[in-house]
Amino acid sequence: MLIVVLAVAGIVFVGLNVLIKSPATESSQVATVSKQKQIKKTVRLTAIGDSLTYGVGDATSSGGYVPLIKKEMELRDQTNVVTSNYGVSGDTSVQILKRINTQKKVRQGLADADLITMTVGANDLMHTISNNISDIDLAKVITASKTYQKNLTKLIQAIRTENPDAPIVIASIYDPFYVYFPKLKALQQGMDHWNQTTQTVIKNFKQTYYVDIDSVMTDPKGSVLATSQTSTKTSASNPFLYTEDHFHPNNRGYQAIANTLIKKIQAIKSTWLYEE
């Protein structure tokens, strides 16, 4: 008899427990749905940097990679993207920092941004090697990278002063000389070290991301490598480079850069796409 009573009591307890918990579970599910974030109607993208951000070599003169990633963001995320392009050809990290410190419109553009992209470092390196790419002093490059590291740190700190939260996506530099001088190991090592310095700095800042464009721009499919150190530019080619200077990207190059940037931008869209 006792066993029967205990069994009935157990059944009643389980039944009551189900009745009590079910509404709570349903309420929890409803609460989860209600907490889904809303996509921003407008996303503000601020691009800052050197000639790659400005768009030298872009036959459309519309701003290089910037309008390309704007178009892709709007297509993928169904939001309106407003861009501000503060790229200046020839700027080093120091000069970009100076513009932030002296130009109110640049500071405001950074402050208003939901997402920030930046190209930086190529001109710093070029000043170091003084365009003497056939006789690079790697030790000098490594020493100069320490100064670049300090300057880039100050630059990102200045951006963070204006905007503590927006993700910053920073592109690597690439080697536009590789197809013409594929045997210059010191040049490649110098480029690699410069990119490693950028990555070292980025690790010290939250929501700051590195994107490798070197792998898509330095030796893309269709390139023709020079067969000797003395080969002229006409005997080698990189299909992603602007033929006027053999340095900056052409339209295909900017599309390749945009494709690489958008992968990272999409991977981190939880940081810029949704309302808080």
UniProtKB/TrEMBL annotation:
Q: Which domain of life is it from?
A: Bacteria
**Entry annotated with the keyword Hydrolase:** yes
InterPro entries assigned to the protein according to its UniProt record, in alphabetical order:
Ester_Hydrolysis_Enzymes, SGNH_hydro, SGNH_hydro_sf
Keyword list, A-Z: Hydrolase
One Pfam short name: Lipase_GDSL_2
Q: Where is the SGNH hydrolase-type esterase domain?
A: 47-256
Q: Name one GO molecular function term.
A: hydrolase activity
Q: Does the keyword Transport apply?
A: no
Name of protein: SGNH/GDSL hydrolase family protein
**What organism is this sequence from?**
Lapidilactobacillus mulanensis
What taxonomic classification does the UniProt entry list for its organism? Bacteria, Bacillati, Bacillota, Bacilli, Lactobacillales
